[in-house]
Every structure is written in C-alpha cells, then in structure tokens.
Amino acid sequence: MVYIILKILLEFTRPLLIIILLVGFSFFALNTHRIRFVKKLLGITLGFLLFSSIGIANRGLLSRLEGFAPLLKASDTPTADFIVVLGGTLTKEVAPRPYSAETGGDRLTEAAKLFHHHKAPFILVSGGVPYRGFHGDFRSEALDMKHYLEELKVPKENIIEESSSRNTKENVFYSDLILKSRNATRIILVTSAFHMKRSMKLFSRTGLTIIPYPTDIRINTTSVSSDFIPSVDALFNFSLAVKEHLGLLAFYFFK
Fold first, then answer.
1. What is the pLDDT of residue 9?
2. Are strands 122-126 and 159-162 parallel, antiparallel or unpaired?
3. What is the distance, to the nearest Å, from the Cα of residue 240 to the centroid of all Cα atoms in its chain?
4. In the chain, where does the domain assigned CATH 3.40.50.620 lie?
5. What's the pLDDT tens digit per position in 143-160?
6. pTM of the prediction?
7. Which of 46, 60, 66, 145 suits 86 as a labelling partner, its CA being 20 to 30 A distant?
8. Which CATH superfamily, name and number, covers 74-215?
9. pLDDT for position 103
10. CB 89 within 8 A of CB 107
C-alpha cells in the first residue's frame, strides 16, 4: 500500500502534469472572474514550462547527478565478483512487441561489454514488478534483462535474476541478499549516470566494495544552440532530475 501511495505521489511531481494542473486551475479560476489572479497563474505556468523545457536552464540539475562518478571504459574497469545491473532501460514484451528493446539507456549493453572483457564471471540483473507478456505469460523485468543479455552472447548460466524488487531501495536489498549468499564482496554497479548517486548511497550500506560504472549520459558539458530552445528531451531530462533529487531527499530523511 505504501509503495502504491508513493508511486501516485511521485506522478504529481512530473513537470508536464504540474503544468496541466496549473492550466486547468486557471480555467477554473476564470469562472470566479479573478482575472488578475488568472494572469499571474498563467504567467507562473509559462515560466515553469520554459524553465523545465529549456536545456540550458535545467542543465545543472542533471549534470550534478551525472558527475557523481567518473566514466569508465569497459576495458579499463577493475575486476569484481559480480556485475550488478539495475533495471529501467527495457521496454516490456507487450503487443505488438514480441521482444524487449533497450530504449531507455544502455545499461545492459555496457554490462555485456564488461562481461566479455572478463571483468566479472556473473551478471546479476535486478528488476521486479510482474506483468503479462506478449504470449500471455507472466514476466518480470529481470527475466527480460536476462533474455536480452543472452542475445548479446552472455551465457544464461552466468546470469542471475533478482525479480522481487519494485524500486531502487528494493533493488539494493534483494540484490544484497543474493550477493551475500554467493560470498561476493566486490561488485561493478551498472546504472544510468543520473541514477548512480542514489544507487551508490543505498549500496554503501551493504558493506560491499562498489565500483560505479555509469552509463546513459544525457547532458553534454558543452552548450549547443538547441539548449536555448524548448524541447521535449529537455522536459524529460528535467523530470528525471526532479525524480532523482526527490529520491535523494527520501534517502536522507528516511535512513
């Protein structure tokens, strides 16, 4: 129940939903004939839309997260007992798609590179929340991740599934149980760069030695002309940054 409530509350932090609610409230306020108030509210809405959809305005929110850990090449990464990949980049196997595709980042692709460079003998894929797949079977993100890695020539016997978790905190909890049961002490943690700071802080409680391997860089350090033009990509990046900063606040307040 707590998980569902938190998921609902999190939806109300999405910039696009906030903008829609503000516009809707403005139309409602028009019925009260409070024109000056409506003008101010629409001005706030427009300002918020511009701020959240212009790359140069919200660059700092995401770049601070992405700069938490240095980028590594697979070939230069130290060795470990396990490669741990957190879910969040695969599409589901639902109609009309009979297979999963990595459209939300490159975590699994990079994990496969690490494996083929012999950086660890096993890959642990973490992601739960069951769903009914294309063929009517019940699946989990971890199962989809496993199958995707097999397509990248990682042997199935070298892939361990963790399919009980529903969020990052549970990713860490259930992954730690598996890792400790297999006497792992050192892992390479693979997740998107914007997600690495929160993931590392949660994993730091486990006592494991963590080698961060951030992927999926979204913010360039050099500005380009498109950074000054409103875009859907910038709005999406702003949403990611807000979600991550809220997650970090939750970490500090609910240790």
1. 66
2. parallel
3. 8
4. 74-215
5. 999 999 999 999 999 999
6. 0.88
7. 60
8. HUPs (3.40.50.620)
9. 87
10. yes
pLDDT of the residue at 79: 98
Say which residue the tokens 């939806």 belong to.
11
Residue type, 161: E
Length of the chain: 255
